Amino acid sequence: MTNTGNLSCKKSFSNNKQKQNYLPKRIILVRHGETQVNEDETVLEYVPNYKIKLSKKGRHQAHKTGSKIREIVSHENSDWKVFFYVSPSSRTRETMEEIMGGGETFPKEKVVGVREECRLREQHFGNFQEMETRKKIKRMRNGYGKFFYRVPDGESSADVHDRVSAFLEGLWRDMETNRFGNGPSNELNLIVVSHGLTILLFLMKCFNWSIDQFEGLTNPGNCEYRVIEVGCNGEYSLSVHHQDEELREWGLSQEMIEEQKLRAYGPGFL
Q: Which of 42, 120, 155, 174 could lock onto 194 through a cystine, CB 3.0 to 4.6 A?
């Protein structure tokens, strides 16, 4: 549900149109649906992580999420367009396909582009994962700290942060030079289909959150999404679309929530 503050925001939206410089109106971060691992975790012992597929329930989740996202991007405007970024994993590509609904939910004429982006992949946990070792790694990570803990033969969250940061820096350059061809109606939406940790690190980099703030965040559920939208202050914020209660449930402190409101509406709306 859109934050009620957005109603007041609309009054001054036109005053900040130049400041936005044709930024995509929204960036919607979507985690993949439930997978084979949710049904039988031992598949990780013989199926490569990147080849894990959606379960039947996961496909249903993704299709339902596609309808919800369509409602968000098409609300109050018929000029909307979408551009998809997707992690190269099977489960994320299948999630994107279900979200698109075979061209029914997102018709071809509304899809500006689809780009597979390797830097949005899942944290690397090594190769095949033996279950007892996997449990031990999770216990050690919880004790050590999930940002700096490096998975044996794999990545730390800090490593993922670095490649997500590189992706975002390129994305900002594309926005500033309007490589997406976003018109004056400003109705372009970027939909990023990725993984839970990758999404958290995307938000961390986007909003300059500290490591301590990152450690307090909760992982998005399967097919949950986070909507970052341009507010009347000309900046991206979670508070344009999401309510304070949601943000608290996701682990944002009151200070972080207030910062999101400031980004969305400016100091006069606090």
A: 120
Q: What does the pLDDT look like over 99-144, one tens digit per residue?
A: 999 999 999 999 999 999 999 999 999 899 898 998 999 899 989 9
pLDDT digits (tens, 9 = 90+) for 246-270: 999 999 999 999 999 999 998 876 5
Is-catalytic flag, 32?
yes
Q: Flag whether 263 is marked binding.
A: no
* Burial (Cβ within 10 Å: 0-12, 13-18, ≥19) of residue 223: buried
Query: 213 lies in a domain?
Result: yes
Integer Cα distance of 33 and 182 in angstroms: 29
Residue 123 CA neighbour count, 13 Å, CB half: 23
**Domain carrying residue 12:** 5-123+156-269
Q: Which of the four pLDDT bands, split at 50, 70 and 90, describes residue 176?
A: confident
Pick the catalytic residue: 32, 63, 241, 242? 32
pLDDT of residue 12: 40
Residue 36, annotated as binding a ligand: yes
Asked, for residue 131, whether it belongs to a domain, the answer is: no
Catalytic residue among 94, 98, 117, 122: 122
> What domain count does the chain have?
1
Q: Return the CATH number at 185.
A: 3.40.50.1240
Tokens representing residue 79 in the block: 């000029």
Question: What three-state secondary structure class fits 48?
Answer: coil
34 is in an annotated binding site: yes
**Has 35 been labeled as part of a binding site?**
yes
Q: Is residue 138 part of a domain?
A: no
